[in-house]
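Check my protein:
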Amino acid sequence: MLVTRDGDFERMSMMYGSPPKVVWIGVHNMSNAGLAELLVTRKPAIDRLVADEQAAFLALRA
């Protein structure tokens, strides 16, 4: 799994699928603490991405 803020990975994920599964962070200028909180609060969605064999991409926004 790849966690990134780079939008290029969204396009690559849509073109080629997984692996890797991509979690895209659609928030800029966020502190490390804020980023950690976002990932922890969205853990159920991330877990669903991991469990779904067909899914390749998840966008997270604050």
